[in-house]
Every structure is written in C-alpha cells, then in structure tokens.
Fold each of these.
Amino acid sequence: MEQHYDMVVIGSGPGGEGAAMKATKSGLSVAVVERYHDVGGGCTHWGTIPSKALRHTVSQLAEFRNNPLFLPLLMNDDPIPLAGMLRSAESVVRRQVAMRHGFYERNRVRVVHGTARFVEPNVVEVEAPGGASERLHARDFVIASGSRPYRPANVDFAHFRICDSDTVLRLKETPSTITIYGAGVIGCEYASMFRTLGVKVNLINTREKLLSFLDDEIIDALSYHLRDQGCVIRHNEEMERIEPVEDGVVLHLKSGKRVKSDVLLWANGRTGNSQGMGLEALGVVTDDRGQIKVNDQYQTSLPHIYAVGDVIGQPALASAAYDQGRFAATHVACGSCDNRLAQDIPAGIYTTPEISSLGRTERELTAEKVPYEVGPLAVPQPRARADHRADRRDAQAALPPRDPGHPRHPLLRPPGERDHPHRPGGDEPARGPQHHQLLRQHDVQLPHHGRGLPGGGAQRAQPTLLRFAREGQKVATAPRWKAQSWSAPLRMPHQE
Ligand SMILES: Cc1cc2nc3c(=O)[nH]c(=O)nc-3n(C[C@H](O)[C@H](O)[C@H](O)COP(=O)(O)OP(=O)(O)OC[C@H]3O[C@@H](n4cnc5c(N)ncnc54)[C@H](O)[C@@H]3O)c2cc1C
C-alpha cells in the first residue's frame, strides 16, 4: 500500500532535518526516510559531532596531563586506548539522537527506517533492513543523503590498518604512528587530535600548502604549530600505492618516498551519496563525484525533486545543510523563497590551535585591489597564565605580539575602525583556543556593521553553543521548550 505525503525527505542529517521541520511547521504532511538505524545523519554519527566530541576528550586529557596538580595521579605516560575515548563521544551522540527523535515526534513527522529509491517521479520505495518494503508517494521530495569518503579502487579499505574518516572512529587501540593522506580540514583536524594524543603523525598533503582557502599568515602559523608539535608534513605528494605489511602499512609516494606507520587514515576527498537511488532513470543530473546539480532554489533537473547539503557539494558544512533544507522546504510550501545562503559562511576549524574564518582573505582583497586593515585584539596573557596554558597551547597559539604582552588576534578590529568603506575587519581568519566562539560573537555583530547577510540572518558555524541554541529554537514547538530559559535573546517559535 502507498502512503501519501506532501513531502518526503531522504536523509535525517542537518539538511533533511532542516527541510522536514520547516515543511511540517508550514502545515505540510512530511515523512523522513533514513537508512541508518538512528536519526541525525553523518553529522551526528560519523562526522561533526563524534569528531568534535573526541577532540574535546583528547584536549581535556592533554590539559589534565599538562596540569601540575594532576601530576601525582599520572602513573605513566601510556597511551589511553582510543576505544575508551570514543565511548565518551558515544554518550554525546546518544544525547543528540534522543534530542533529534524528540524533534520529529513533537512536530509529527514520521521517520521511516530503510533505504529510499525512486521507482517513479513521485514515488520512492523504502527497503527496510529486514527486507520489507514500503512505497511513499509525495508531491515534492528533498534529497539530503549526504556524502561519504571517496575510496579509490586500488586501496584496500577492508584491511584493519587502513581507515577513512568514517571508520577511524572504530579504531580500538591508539596507534603509535599514523599516516594521514590528505591535508584538508578533516585531515588537519585528525592530525592535531592524534598528535595531542602523543601519536607520531605523518601528514601527506597533495597540495602546495595546508588549507589554501585561508590567509597565508594563518596557513603558515598552522604549519608551524603542527610541525612544532612534532607532526611531519609533506607537501605536493601523491599516492602511488598503499601496501599493508605484517607490522604496519607502507604508503608509496610517486616521488619515490615510502612512509610506514601502524595505521593509514585516508582523508582525501568525498563523494555525494546519489548512487542507487534511481536518479539516472528519472533524468536527475549528477556529476562524476556523485554531486547532484541544483539551481539556486535547490531544485534538481526535475523541479519537484530538491537536493540539499553535502550531496550537492560545497560548502559541505552542517550549518549550511540545515539552512539549505529550510530554504528548499520554504520553496515547496510557499512557491518561492527569497532566502539565500550567505556567501560569507563562518568556518570553525578544530585544529590545535583552533582557526576561525569569515569572508575574503588578505590575498583575495589584495588581488581585487581592496584596501584593508588588520586589527589586533588584545587577549590578556594573565588569563592564559591562570589556567596553566600560557607555556603550552595558548602561548603557542599566539603569533609574535604586535602589542607587547598581548597575543595577536586579528579577528576583531579595535573600536572606532568600523567605518572603513571596504575593509571588513572581521573578514580575517583567526586562530587560538575557543576562536570559533569569538567568531560566533562576531557574526552576530555583522548586521550592526551595515553588513547584514541576505536572508534575514547570519550564517553560523557549527558546532558552537549559539548554533545549537538557534537550531533548537527553529524546531521546538512544545511548551516544555518554552519553559527553558536562555541567556541569549532568542525569539520563541510563535514569534517566527
Ligand atoms: C570528520 C568530519 C568532521 C566534520 N566536522 C564538521 C564541523 O566541524 N562543522 C561542520 O559544519 N561540518 C562538519 N562536517 C561536515 C558535516 O558533517 C556535513 O556537512 C553534514 O553532515 C551534511 O549534512 P547532510 O544533511 O547533507 O548529510 P548527512 O549528515 O551526511 O546525512 C545524510 C543522511 O542520509 C542518509 N541516507 C543516505 N542515502 C540514503 C537513502 N538512499 N535512503 C535513506 N537515507 C539515506 C544517511 O544514512 C545519512 O544519515 C564534518 C564532516 C566530517 C566527515
């Protein structure tokens, strides 16, 4: 028997959740199909949340080890099994899943567990894990099926020493050495994490520099600090083959180098989850990386089928996926949507030191002949000293101070410089502990600088506290939520 809905959403990550919540609150009947056994998507189960929870645990462990108070408690420097740290990440994931289940229940959105595949332009068949199938009919569809790590055919990912960013979370033991192939955001974040754990890290970059979308100053600082922490970085290298041996895995590079380690983490590229969904038969256009082509309203080549989030490619951020989902659902519900994703999306990069970034780089402004200024922010040293980090992470995170006694923090301009016609002082990346929270403060302020973002609001990096508060505000409808008090001036759902 076919179930009929106004909208069927495929995938329950941020993109699918954003679409489903907006649609149900606009009065549409909605079902969400999810092939994993829990809601939340890759974001909750193998991407943003577990990697950040793990990172938090690793940072806490490092702080514990660096604090003289705890020295007597430390019997030895033996590595802590990764599995133990991952268990602490699991509890964060469980709480996230419970919260997200609540969103669907409270907003009367049916969640259907199984794999969705189009059998007709307006019908998807959902095959449940046990083999049973069900057909869902809808007027409109939103595909929010996410992405997965790109896996070249000549790499044996079934071997226990070779993993990607999904399967690294299944490592039981902390390796002594790891080679990370690919030095994008995920590669750099894991390099920092493993290094903090005391693992010897080889970071193999296929490009000339790390994270070339950032300012040169920040790239140089990141390279400096990773190397200073003991990470070996090799630029401009390309894999020839990967050879598992008895006591390790050897990465053979085209340059003739061979890098041996206990484990190899493949972090080089991602592929959109668009295969096996019957899209070819319908004529929905995808590219060679599995990314679905959409117009500026997130419609595919079939106007009633929308696609959002990682499956359409950049910016491939949880925050962007969520908003794209909402915009697509608005278009379905209202027939039009004026909201657009902000071009300047704040990014938080959770390396050590942390990096946050918003807008154009100094390199781009210079190429465009736009005058600009760099404003240092004085972060008083005593605060860092007081929490035992002055000689370690905080101090390392600071560039040579321009103003003696203060680490340089180029994110915010000094008061009184806000009226420069071209130079948005906040368009500078910054780095250091908790910088993503500073960026949050800054993007809240942007509209007051005459730089309001289109779509009636700022785009927010994730995960930050305020981002979660905002998502909670968007999906909550129950009185229980209204009773909670927030220090931030949130509008309640009935005010939307
Ligand atoms: C290691 C890592 C760290 C990251 N860190 C950050 C970060 O710090 N900040 C940030 O903003 N972003 C981060 N990201 C990116 C972020 O996780 C993604 O941008 C976000 O999850 C994309 O959301 P989505 O809804 O498009 O897809 P997903 O969250 O991947 O969800 C897609 C869902 O669709 C389901 N699905 C797929 N195909 C089908 C089908 N045929 N039928 C039914 N269900 C299906 C999948 O099971 C999955 O649950 C990170 C990613 C990784 C891998």
Amino acid sequence: MTHEHFHPHLTPDEIELWAQGLLGAAGALHLAECRDCLAHAERERKLVLELARLPRFAPEFGFDDRVMTHVRVPTPSGDFRA
Ligand SMILES: [Zn+2]
C-alpha cells in the first residue's frame, strides 16, 4: 500500500483526460493502484459517456452558417453608392 510514492494522485484535469482516453501511461498506472482515483475516474468516465450519448440539442453548424449567410446577403455593396 505504498502507491502514494509511486505517482501522485491524479488531478481533476488528469482524470478528465483519462476519461477521454488521453492520459499517459503513468497516470493509468496510478489508477490501477489507487482506489480513490479509480472511483473518481469511473464517475468521470460515466459522465463523458453520457454526454457523448446525448441527442444533439442544437441544429447542425452547417445549417446555422447557411442561415446566417442568407441573413447577411441582402446588402450588396455595389448598389450602395448608385
Ligand atoms: Zn490516487
């Protein structure tokens, strides 16, 4: 039970990285040894998975862009000084 000397506890940032599969081997090794961090990490990963599974609330970005283009279009700069 000397895992504290092996690697410091993971920071919230590191746990978030781990949940996204981006954490390095050292952090992952600590998780394998440390129940506290593992419990925290599992909670974080559940959250990430749930967020990823959420239906999209917002319309697609492309759709938004097209609408914005149409809104801006009716001001042709050519006719302005005629
Ligand atoms: Zn730990």
Amino acid sequence: MRKWLAAILCVCALSAMLEARGKKEEDRREAEQEATRENAGSAPGFALPGECIPVWFTVSDSDSSAQARLTARDGRLVARAAAFSLDDGRMLALLAVSTFAEAGDYVIHGDIDRHGVTQFSFMVPCTIGIKSFFEEIIDLDRRNTGIRTDTSPERLAQIDRLNEILFARNPVVEPFTGPYKPPVASQRRTAQFGDRRTFRHADGKKSATIHHGIDFGIPSGTPVYAAGDGSVVLSEYRISTGYTIIIEHLSGVYSLYYHLDRLSADTGEYVRTGTLIGESGSTGLSTGPHLHWEFRVNGVSVSPDWFLSWGADNPE
Ligand SMILES: [Zn+2]
C-alpha cells in the first residue's frame, strides 16, 4: 500500500514538474511571440481622406507575405493593400484612403503570412479626420465637350488600358519611397486635388467628376520632371489626357502627367527624380496650358502633397 502511495506521489511530482516545465516553455514562446509581434508592424493613427496610410511590416524570411486592411467600426472593409518588399528587408503596404471616406474611428489590421498561414496579426486604431474639397463649375467649349462625350472604341480602349495599368501591381526592381519632388518649379496651382467638378457642356448638359490631381498653371513648353525614381509604363497620346506619361515608383504606385506638348521619355525607360520627361501643354481635355499631376495607389487617387511630405520623412 505504501509502495503504491509512493508511486502515485512520484507520478504526481513528475507530472507537476513536467507541467511546470511545459508552462515555462509556453511562457517563453509567448514572450518570444509577443516580442516579435511588437516589432512585427507599425502604422500611423491618423490620416485624412485622400491620403495614404503606410503600414510597415518586419518579416523574418523571404517566404513571408503581408497585407493590411482598413475597416470601419462596424467591420466594413474600407481599403486593403498587399505589402511589397523594400531593399532594407521590411515590407510596406500603402492603404489609400478615398476622398469619399467619412471622418471617424477606424482600425488598421496587419497580417503576416507564411506559406498561406497567418503567423502574426496586429491592429492599430486609426482616426480619419475631416477634409472638405472645393466645388467648381467648368464650362466646356465644343471641342472639350466632344472629348468628354466621346464614346469611340478608341477612347474606350484607352480608358480600359489606363485602368489596367493603374490597378496592376508589378514587382518593382528598385522600389522608391522618396523623397518625391514637384514636377515643375512653379507654385501656381489652378486646381486642387479632390476638387468636386461639374462640367457644363456646350449643349447645356452637365456631368460631374472628381479632379484626381493638382493642376499647375504654366505656359506651354515648360519642362516637366519625374517626381521620383521609377519605370515609365506609358508614354503616348490619349484622347482625354493628351500627351501622357505614367511612372511606376512602387508596386501599385504611379505618378501621372497629363496634357503635355512633348514627350521626352519612352515606355520602359527607367527615370530618376528630376529627369526631364516632357514639356507642358494643353493637349486633350484642357481649357488652357497647364500640367495635371496625379498619384494613384492601387487604382485610388491620392493627394500628390501627401507623397511630397511622406517622401521627405522616409524612412520612418
Ligand atoms: Zn487636372
């Protein structure tokens, strides 16, 4: 009887010891995961409509992938972005906040996956502030009305192709996170990013649109420079935007230059910040000489001013 009791006590002690060791191991693993989680990602807690939210990920190996989501308080998905790798080993996802986003409290979610299985997740509360945009009415003459209402297969094909480019996320060989520079020396802005526009057509009809970039009022023939390093993915004449250049700087991140008189960079060319890419003009749908300068992130237009200030602080 005593032997049995000794054996039972022995088993109990052993299992208590094993349990303690298991608990310690669990604690160690948890602490390790916690530490990794703390360094796994970061994101800012505030943004305005028409801005980007940069979500940074620290990943341990090249098999990892990462993505970010922005959700409203009711769980509604507002924006999502896959992360791309940078030269320093970190990954970055740029969440584009539409100019239509409502002010309020949101949550940024970051997920790091390995072989399709989520390894770490983090959440950062984020407030979207209030921003109002200008409203303006623009009268279109017969020529501009003709362009605005052009439904020719050629124009429709050009629009499809533009969307195809802007929504594409190519792996970028040399990702460029800044600093970005303005494409012209002039500070004279004749239209702002996000302006709510009503076009009054020559026949009295109206149509509404958003101004997706900034207009610089400059004489035709003014040199236009690349806002950042990147690959020219389009350099051609388009019915709506005239002579047009598009540069890809990061995976899914593009700067656009419209209404040029002359193109000085070819599709496929790699340009640096400040490379001459063309001369300004008034080609396409335009009411006077100017440069239209725009940024797109995963297809969504983002304020060029956000890129100017973000690039200046980078890397975080
Ligand atoms: Zn414009």
Amino acid sequence: MVKEAAISIICLKCGHCCIHLDVVIVSPKYIDYDLDFSVNDVIDYLEIKRGGNRCPHLSESNECKIHSKSWYNLTPCYQYTQIPDNTECRRGILELNKLK
Ligand code: SF4
Ligand code: SF4
C-alpha cells in the first residue's frame, strides 16, 4: 500500500493540468474498482494523459469526476506538489485571474 501523502498543494481546480499537461491518471476502466494502489498492481491502474488532451475524468463543468473516490488521495493528481508546501497553486491563481 502506498502511504498517503500530506497535502502539499492546494489545487484551485482551474483545469489547467487536466487539459494542458502530461498527467498520470487512473485508467477510466478502473474507476469503479475499489483500488488499493498496492505496489504490484498500481502500474495496471494508471495511464498517461498527454498534454493538449482533455482528461477523461474532467466533466463539462471542469470538475474532476474522481475527486470523491475513496482512493483519490493516493493518485498522482492528489500528490502533485509545489514549494512551499500547503499553499494555493500559483499556476491556478494565474489561470483563474485570466478569467476575471
Ligand atoms: S484525474 Fe482529475 S485532477 Fe487528475 S487530470 Fe484528470 S480531471 Fe484533472
Ligand atoms: S494548475 Fe494548479 S489549480 Fe490548476 S488544476 Fe493544476 S494543480 Fe489545480
């Protein structure tokens, strides 16, 4: 079992990563499984979403559809970081300011 990471970035849910970055995501075919991210199996659950492609988990209203999953805090998206830790995402602030 992968250890749960402390929250190290406060994602403002601007959707930038979900569309423009290469991101390792949980394969859509596994989202209804009770994933435990055990080390032997974890590679099977994951796939790379390429930058420029909309993540299949991003809803039309730009909400992540898997945030509510019990295992979401073990995903690469949740464990994304910045320095200093536990601060609002600087990229997200930039992206949201563009919309004002
Ligand atoms: S899984 Fe969720 S947070 Fe991660 S890239 Fe996809 S929509 Fe964004
Ligand atoms: S750029 Fe920051 S705020 Fe936007 S989705 Fe990525 S982590 Fe979240």
